[in-house]
Write a structure and sequence with these properties.
The chain folds into 2 domains: 2-116, Four Helix Bundle (Hemerythrin (Met), subunit A); 121-256, Helix Hairpins (Orthogonal Bundle). The protein is 78% helix and 0% strand. The protein has helices spanning 2-9, 12-31, 35-40, 42-65, 78-91, 99-106, 112-116, 118-156, 161-164, 167-178, 183-192, 213-300. The longest helix is centred in the last third of the chain and has 88 residues, at 213-300. The mean pLDDT is 82.
């Protein structure tokens, strides 16, 4: 039975069937956002939801059965735990009055794509590995934002109160700048003054216009280069590096699994060869004993 379950679980046909079901479930969740379609085909959608759920349950049962007498080994994999938790969440009874909650829970089926695609698992693993290093980069980024935010409040707060009237507003405006979302408009207000640029319709807020052509250009260009290109690219570099490391670890794990399987086959073949050799040796011993008995009988038989 264990070999049967293992064969099904490792079958490409079964794996592709589960992947198709996950993609179909993801599309189904999107279609259900259209209330008119969802109400018109409510019965059909309900049947499809139950079929997909039963397929996920069958997948979990098959994978647990593939472990044979050690079913707990299924739960040693973090991805199996992830899939099992989603199945449990989908099984939990939810009343119709909590329809929004029910739809949200069904949305969890989309997350099955994370465990169904091995390459995607590598990316997720790389992201989790990057968290410690990203924490230090986040501290550096916060310091850059804080220093520039305080400086912008002092330098441009009177001229541009909409963007730099307070520290918290300045930090939010700098986030806009670092994402390159119309950041030149903010820079031009500092360079030309609020009375000449950017405050059309808000003239009452422009109480102390002041132009800083060189200072504004240097301030914002340096912030974009430092915050938007250097620090942010550090995040990308860390993720790329950890992704490469994760792929190497995955290849090492696959190589180790193949070597372990080859060793098991070698041990099995050696055991079979040893058993056959012992059987042949026993037969030879029996033949030798039979020949010895025949020789003794021939010696005892009188010659005519």
């Amino acid at each position: 039975m264990q070999k049967t379950f293992a064969g099904i679980a490792q079958s490409p046909l079964f794996q592709n069937l589960v992947l198709v079901a996950i993609v179909f479930a993801s599309v189904l969740v999107g279609i259900e956002t259209y209330d008119s379609i969802a109400q018109q085909h409510a019965t059909l959608f309900n049947i499809l939801d139950h079929l997909i759920l039963w397929l996920f349950i069958a997948e979990a049962v098959i994978k647990i059965g593939a472990e044979g007498r050690q079913p707990w080994r299924y739960f040693q994999s973090s991805w199996n735990l992830f899939d099992f938790a989603i199945v449990i969440a989908l099984i939990l009874p939810i009343d119709d009055q909590y329809f929004v909650v029910l739809r949200t829970v069904r949305l969890l089926r989309v997350l099955r794509l994370l465990s169904a695609l091995p390459d995607l698992q590598v990316v997720i693993r790389a992201l989790f590995k990057s968290i410690p290093s990203m924490g230090y980069i986040s501290v550096i980024l916060f310091l850059v934002f804080y220093i520039y935010g305080v400086a912008a409040t002092y330098l441009f707060g009177a001229n541009d109160p909409i963007h730099f009237g307070s520290l918290q507003i300045a930090l939010l405006s700098l986030f806009r700048v670092v994402t390159l979302e119309d950041w030149t408009d903010v820079m031009y207000i500092a360079m030309q003054g609020c009375d000449r640029y950017g405050y059309e319709g808000f003239e009452a807020l422009c109480t102390a216009p002041a132009a800083h052509p060189w200072l504004g250009a240097i301030f914002f260009v340096s912030f974009v280069v430092l915050g938007g290109m250097v620090v942010v690219n550090l995040f990308v570099g860390i993720i790329v590096s950890n992704t490469a490391t994760s792929f190497e670890e995955l290849n090492a794990e696959e190589t180790a699994e193949i070597e372990a399987a080859l060793k098991d086959q070698e041990a099995h073949l050696s055991s079979q060869i040893g058993d056959q050799a012992l059987s042949i040796q026993n037969r030879l011993t029996a033949i030798q004993e039979s020949l010895a008995q025949i020789q003794e009988q021939l010696k005892e038989t009188p010659q005519s």
